Amino acid sequence: MSNTEIATLLNHVAAAMRIIDERKYYFQIVAYEKAADSLLQTHIQAVDLLREGKLEELPGIGESIRSHIAQLLRDGKVPHFEGFLSHVPASIFPLLDVPGIGPKKAFKIVHFCKLLNPDTVIDDVVQAAKEGKIATIPSFGEKSQQDIIRAVSEYKARSGKLTRTLLPMADRIASDVIHYLKKHRSVQDVRPLGSLRRKMPTVGDIDIAVASSDARGVISHFILYPNIKRVIEQGDATASIITSSGSQVDLMVQPLEAFGSLLQHFTGSKYHNVHLREIALEKGMSMSEYGIKHKGQLHKLAREEDVYKMLGMDWIPPELREDKGEIEAAMAHRLPSLIEVRDIKGDFHIHSNYPIEPSHDLGNHSMEDHLKKAISLGYEYIAFSEHNPSISQHSKDDIITIMKKRNAYIEQLKSNTKNIHIFSMCEIDILANGDLALPEEALELLDGAIVSIHSNLDDDQAAMTKRVLKGLSHPKAKVLAHPTGRLLGKREGYQLEWREIFDFMIEHHKAIEINAWPERTDAPDSVIREGIEKGVKFVINTDSHALEHMDLMPYGVDNARRGWATKDAIINAMRYTSVAQWFTQ
DNA sequence: GCCGTTTTCGGCCCGACTGTTTTCAGTCG
Prior knowledge:
Layout: H1 3-21, H2 26-41, H3 46-51, H4 63-75, H5 79-85, H6 92-95, H7 103-113, H8 121-130, H9 142-158, E1 165-166, H10 167-181, E2 189-193, H11 194-197, E3 202-203, E4 206-211, H12 215-222, E5 228-234, E6 238-243, E7 248-254, H13 259-267, H14 270-282, E8 285-288, E9 291-294, E10 297-299, H15 304-310, H16 326-331, E11 346-350, H17 367-376, E12 381-384, H18 396-416, E13 421-424, E14 427-429, H19 440-443, E15 449-452, H20 461-472, E16 477-480, H21 498-507, E17 511-515, H22 525-534, E18 537-541, H23 553-562, H24 576-584
Parallel strand pairs: 4-7, 11-12, 12-13, 14-15, 15-16, 16-17, 17-18
Antiparallel strand pairs: 1-3, 2-4, 5-6, 6-7, 8-9, 9-10
Helix pairs in contact: 1-2, 1-5, 8-9, 13-15, 22-23
The protein binds one DNA strand through α2, α4, α7, α9 and β5.
């Protein structure tokens, strides 16, 4: 049973408790929801955490929920959960995915209209609305009836698609809106916030903050944005729209003197903010997007640093604001000094168009072009890492010939190139049996190899771990690329026994890749964080198949920062001589 | 149900907006 499935169940139990008696169960509800979020945010499966006695280390999971999950994984069900779930029809749960419908509304609809089939309830509720039945339910009216029809239609239009947007696309949408907002004369500052500012790999709603003394004017301007589908809501200081591309954009406006508080509030995350406000309470303060109240007086804060300072802690980089220990670290003045884009001195994962005759895709541009680009990025070194020659279409001797020729080409390139160092690498498939898809004689020609899984992705965890470790055991294998194989919104990827992988990496001086490709962002931040704590080294690579892909490096750095990476944990933040030495270790 | 540099008991964030309400419930972030 996956973390996603367990989280869904916990959320369902919480929803049932809200319906049964929200006041009575209030703190259990909050606890269950937090535990569910916590499970969704880790890439390590609950069953593994449980086996290692580490499930309770997840924030929001204590003795009680741990034992329920243990029972769930053992027996497939938990009587304590079933007790709550039996009080509500199962047909309410699909409705909870429709924006604007929460547990209470879902229950009323299902109860009054007698819609009891979970498989058809989404369509049934639209039918009931069209027949005018929804408007007759107490506390519902004509408007809410129409809202439900529209909400379901929007929900169905995007079902099956990625409901969150990849970070670069969200960046583009945000910058269009920001460009438009700046046209309003009262706007003094505009910033993208929320998960966009925290650099999450996928972004839900796009949050934007504006500093202005004319909130109404800015909001009137905002809702006239040209690429708009509809206005969701509009108030005195906030508004939300849906763009024609289907993205929700939330706007908040505050005067410049309170902008620091707004930045802090709107950046989140939810649990980071909740934790900060609890600390404020302990200090006799109360904080919101308007400022910090202390002894009856509201202190408006123009700078975000001052919000944290007033609470007695250091400013926290947005990427860390997930309530995963960053607040404690900030209070102790022990926040890590995170890696930055300017620390990056090279890129190891570049697919040029050199005719290596691979089974996977070749790059679009020449090695020479990539070198120029690397120099323009200020790199000290670069590694070429085309896929190995196809083993199904070449004999062993063919492959060795191709690789010798490539090696000679790279040697020639080296002798003609100043200002940057070149490493000769390859991205080599780890075959189903754990062997590398390149003969020994060809491997010896390389400075090092990137190894990765591209086939038989459904091996189970133990088998996949064994396979990866076997692939990594060759002395030339230095980097494990995109180590979970996930593609955001498309596939989950495979599971590895991370502790075993980490130990092996440390002992044999190898590194795990942080793949900057936005659809991958692989390793995931939770894996990076745990690896970093153990002392594992990482490499941030773009996996470029074209020149412009080399510009994706900042997304890799973002993800490394979310994993609490400092520059001393990143191989390609080291100087050339150190990297060259690392290749020989 | 979780959690701890005042606590293993007694706390538990803060606000915006909408619709159907005459003063608030539900949803969202």
